[in-house]
Specification:
Residues 32-94 form a coiled coil. This is DNA recombination protein RmuC. By secondary structure, the chain is mainly alpha-helical. It has one domain (24-94). The chain is 98% helix and 0% strand. The chain contains one helix and no strands. The chain starts with a helix and ends with a helix.
Length: 95
């Protein structure tokens, strides 16, 4: 009879261990789902940031090209001004 009662105790402990393992497994599944959702969110944010960086790089290229063109125009205007000043001095000198 003592052996029969002991086997029930062992079975009860085993059932509790299996239930504990089941609860632990459920918690792991929930944590995995949360981690996966966070990963998907992070991936979406990364894609948005990459798109924004690409857009900003394009804007920088456009602005750099525009600045280069404006500098060339300023240099051209400075040359024209110097030429006009030389012409004015020449006219004053000749008269």
């Amino acid at each position: 009879m003592f052996g029969f009662g002991l086997s029930w105790v062992v079975m009860g402990v085993c059932i509790l261990l299996v239930q504990g393992a089941g609860v632990a497994l459920c918690l792991q599944v929930l944590q995995r789902r949360e981690a996966f959702a966070a990963l998907q969110n992070s991936q979406a944010q990364l894609k948005q940031m990459q798109a924004r960086v690409y857009q900003l790089e394009n804007e920088i290229c456009e602005l750099t090209a525009g600045l280069r063109a404006e500098k060339a125009h300023v240099e051209q205007l400075q040359r024209q001004l110097e030429f006009a000043q030389q012409q004015a001095r020449q006219i004053q000198h000749d008269s």
